[in-house]
Amino acid sequence: MKKLTPYLILVVLLFQACVKQQEVSVIYEASQAVSAFSVSYQNEYGLLVDTIINPQSNQDIWRYKMFLSKGDIVYLSGKYDDINSGLKLSIIIDGKVFKEQYSLGDTVNYLIVSGTIPY
Amino acid sequence: MDKFSLVLLLMFLFVSVLPLTAQHDTIALKEVEIIDFKGNITGHPVDRINPATIFQTSITDVGILLSAIPNISGVRKGPNGFDPVIRGFKYSQLNVLLNGATKIEGGCPNRMDPATTHVDINSITDITVYKGPYALKFGPSFGGIINISTWQPQFSNVYTTHLKGNVGLQNNGYGYNSTLNLEGSGKMFSYAIVGGTKNYGNYRDGAGRWVNASMQQYNSSAKVAFKIGGKSVVDARVDLSQGRNIGFPALSMDERQDKTNIYTINYKGTNVSKIFKLVKINGWMSVVNHTMDNKNRPISDTVVAVSVIEAHDAGVRGSVKFNMKQGTLESGLDYEHIYKDGKRTKSMIKQPGLPVKNESIWSNAVIDNMGIYGEYLLERKAINWIVSGRVDFNSANSNPMERLGINDLPFYFEDSTSSKYLNFSFSAGLTWKLNVNNRIIFSLGHGVRSPDMTERFIVLLPVGYDRYDYLGNPGLKPEANNELDVEFKHYSKSNWYFDGNIFLSYVTHFIGSKRVPSSIARPQTKGVLGVKQFVNFPAVWLTGFEASLESPAEKQWHLSINAAYTYGVNPTAPGYKIENGQVVDEYVIKNDPLPEISPFETNVSFQYKFFNGKLVSMVNWRWVAAQKAISVSYGEQTSKSFQVINIKINYKFSSNLTVWGGVNNVFNKTYFEHLNRNIIGSSAPLYEPGRNYFVNFIFNF
Question: How many structural domains is chain B composed of?
Answer without folding.
Answer: 1
